[in-house]
Design brief:
This protein is mainly β. The chain is built from no helices and 10 strands. A hairpin with a 2-residue loop joins β9 and β10. It is elongated and about 55 Å long. The chain starts with 9 loop residues before the first strand and ends in a 9-residue tail after the last strand. About 15% of the residues are buried. The mean pLDDT is about 95.
Length: about 100
């Protein structure tokens, strides 16, 4: 399934405990319909000692459902509703409000 959000996009969280926070998409997990966003939905993970490395408490990002994030336009400080258009025979993402192209 093709998603409107891709790795590297700047997104804003629209629901949940981190609502309003923004970050960069680190990974898209299409089978689980989830995304990892940098600095958002942080959880603690206990790691056991292994060999000469001591045990520790790690803080890392947990996955968010893809429906709870939206692409963020930093210049206009607003969420972007994404649509698709065909330009030069290629399918590209566009901002539905302005018609501006989102893909490079």
């Amino acid at each position: 399934m093709a998603y409107k959000i891709r790795r590297g996009d700047h997104v804003v969280v629209t629901a949940g405990k981190d609502k309003g926070k923004t970050g960069k998409v680190l990974q898209v997990l299409p089978v689980r319909e989830r995304v990892l966003v940098e600095g958002v939905n942080l959880v603690k993970k206990h790691q056991k000692p292994a060999g000469d490395q001591p045990g520790q408490l790690l803080t890392k990002e947990a996955a968010l459902h893809i429906s709870n994030v939206a692409i963020w336009n930093d210049a206009e400080k607003r969420q972007v509703r994404v649509g698709f258009a065909v330009e030069d025979g290629k399918k590209v993402r566009v901002d539905k409000k302005t018609g501006n192209r989102l893909d490079g």
